[in-house]
Amino acid sequence: MLRTPRLIALVVSAAAFATVTFASSAQAGLAPPTDVTPLTVVKTVSGPVPAGTTFTATVACDDDIILDGLDVTDTATVTFDAAGQPTSADTVEFDDPGSCTVTETATGGAATTTYACSSEVVAASTDVGEQQVLALCATSGPQSSPMTINPEVVEGSITVTIANTFVAATPQPAPQVVAAPVFTG
Q1: Separation of alpha carbons 94 and 61, rounded Å
Q2: Are strands 156-165 and 39-46 parallel, antiparallel or unpaired?
Q3: Is the pLDDT of residue 121 over 60?
């Protein structure tokens, strides 16, 4: 007769364990993945930047992979002030791997714009080889054309730096004044 209570206790314990395990697994499936490499956009400026200048960088992807709250989209914008400080979120997160292009769509009247890219992968969390690590940035730059990035499912980061150079206006010489002789006659 002691067998029946033990058997009942064992069955109840197994059922409780299965319920907790199933519930945990179901909830885990609802959370967005957090292991796709995020992108941070950085702005540098040199030269005399006019007061009130603003800059806008657009991240455009080949698919809806950019996290936007609970939704996904294929574009995001990052804005900066005249000093190059972000005035919006400067990190873009992704829910899937893909290919994206970072383009400065408002240069603030800069004389030149260049793009550079760097990426870091946490070696302890992945067995990604050197070739794949470098593939997160299509090139490292600096380059004058927009930068292509390839966010992947690896723990790490991608940084695209957009550099703007402003040139001081050169003063124009005053027109030469030639005095005409005065005839008194």
Answers
A1: 10
A2: parallel
A3: yes
Spatial CA neighbour of 139 closest among 111, 101, 110: 101
- Tell me how far the alpha carbon of residue 100 is from its chain's centroid: 10
Q: Is the peptide bond preceding residue 171 cis, with omega within 30 degrees of 0?
A: no
Does 71 or 7 have the greater pLDDT score? 71
Whole-model pTM: value is: 0.69
Answer whether residue 30 shows pLDDT above 70: no
CA 154 – CA 119 distance, rounded (Å): 11
Give the rounded distance of the alpha carbon of 109 from its chain centre.
Answer: 23
The vertex-109 CA angle with 107 and 113, nearest 5°, equals 50
Res 144 pLDDT > 60: yes
> CA dihedral in degrees (22, 25, 27, 31; nearest 10)?
-170
pLDDT at 139: 87
**144 touches 113 (CB < 8 A):** yes
What was the pLDDT predicted at 185?
Answer: 61
Does residue 3 register a pLDDT over 80?
no
Q: Coil, strand or helix: which one is 24?
A: helix
What is residue 6's three-state secondary structure? Answer: helix
End-to-end Cα distance, the chain: 146
User: What per-residue string of b and e applies to 145-158 under the rule 16 or more CB within 10 Å gives b?
Assistant: ebbebbbbebbbbb
